[in-house]
Amino acid sequence: MNNVYKLHVRLIKTGLQNDPVSLRRLLLSFAAAAPASLPHARSVFARVPFPDTFAYNTLIRAHAHSSPSHSVSLFSAMRRDGVSPDNFTFPFVLKACARLHIGHDAHALIIKLGLGSDIYVQNGLISLYGSFGSVAGAFDVFDEMPERDLVSWSSMISCFANNNFGYEALGLFQDMQLVGNLKPDEVTMLSVISAVSSLGALELGKWVDAYISRTGLKRTVSLGTALIDMYSRCGSVDDSIKIFNAIPVKNVLTWTVLINGLAVHGRSEEALKVFHEMKNAGLKPDHITFNGVLVACSHGGLVDDGWRVFESIKSDYGMEPTVEHYGCIVDLLGRAGLLNKAFEFVDTMPIKPNAVIWRTLLGACVKHNDLKLSEKAKVKIHELDPNHDGDYVLLSNVYGQVGKWDEKANVRNSMREKKVGKKPGYSFLNEGDMLQEFVSGDDFHPKSNEIKRFLVSIIDDLRLDGYTFFTCNALHDVEDEEKEQSLSFHSEKLAVAFALLRFKDRKTIRVIKNLRICYDCHCFMKHVSNKFDREIVVRDRNRFHHFSKGSCSCKDYW
């Protein structure tokens, strides 16, 4: 940075501050020193009497990553000044627009200016469309490219992965390997890993890991950290630990990802141990690290440890706890049944509690059947976020658990009157190169009748072994038989029944669910794991449950 200032002073002393060649050199120096140099760069640029395309491009490029709004403003000024953009202008303008989620009309302007066939501009358009969630628009650009480079393929794979088209991302990655002269780099593989993570497909994850080793791609900190996260999200935190131990260099994010992985798999004491090892290694935890450690304490019922960690954020590191950290403490206390203490904590928070914190309290009240405090929490939530379907469902459940069916019906009627729809529960599992999806109670799966018949037979067998329906949360005050019918076809049960039917030799069944697993399904999974001698791994909205031999890794503390 000092060298840039020295160069500028030297140009002023020699009278060359307006010389076009000298200005080019100065602007390039500013760009190389970004982002620290950018305010000075803009000041110098403002004094350039007639900036040309090169000058604008240099400043636009320098701002594209760290200050995208300035890039867009410079491009607007360029257009107003009548300076023609070229194929070096748009890649960085499009990058800035993608970060800001603006620029829907950029493609039309590019075509108007005759730059639509430039490969660098096309690559930028793929990324731009991807940032909008317009996968079709991105693929149209990709499909029409007469030639593609590594960035083209990587951008399209990233677009698929970031928009939940995991199998399409992996399919395109396989197509890319058929192009002889292209070798995937770190950027490509990070997108591929992201796709696998979203699918929770462990076997595909192992294949990607082996591919990286086989091709000799260097395991950088970023790549290693992504693999740790991938294995955790695919349900195998033991593989995450192996990758972690094999990485020679680790940064704060690497440690944090492992702590988070252990936390959501219910291995709370191990997460706490890794946290202390991180501190002993001389690394300073950040806000995300503390969030992961507090989640671990919450899931493991480590109340005292959680308090100590929370207090250390300010006392040991001089950081102010965030609202997420306060929310973790509320969850920690609520799960442990310390509801009054949790309410006192919220009342004395130095920052205003948001709807998420009150919602966490509501969930704890429902778990511990505290109707009075549930209603208090619901009032607070209604003031902040009155139309969230989950709050109505939770309150409805607590009424059901204490047998107040009229009040439960009133909550459901209120949902209908306010047009608050209940989010449907769905689950999916991986079969080869496709997803099998199941929605609670529906008949859309092509083998729906066969699956339901088999599921009913499973439930009948499990009842002989002591399984009974937990009907308190069934939707209506109806006969027990009707309540049981409602619970029988929850999406995760359908997914497990399908897996038992289809995969006779598969010892582990992996299911991903969009909502928190209910108490009845949790009991069902324990019984199935014992009856059929299978390990069942359920990744729900909050955490992983590993069911084996009639018990769950959460130890029924969830």
Automatic annotation (TrEMBL):
PANTHER family per record: DYW DOMAIN-CONTAINING PROTEIN, PENTATRICOPEPTIDE REPEAT-CONTAINING PROTEIN
Family, as annotated: Belongs to the PPR family. PCMP-H subfamily.
Molecular function terms, GO-annotated: RNA binding; zinc ion binding
PPR-type repeats, residues: 118-152, 251-285
A biological-process GO annotation: RNA modification
Keywords from the named record: Repeat
Entry-linked InterPro entries: DYW_dom, E_motif, PPR_At4g14850-like_plant, PPR_rpt, TPR-like_helical_dom_sf
Origin: domain of life: Eukaryota
The species this protein was found in: Gossypium darwinii (Darwin's cotton)
Name under which the protein is recorded: DYW domain-containing protein
Residues annotated as domain DYW: 467-558
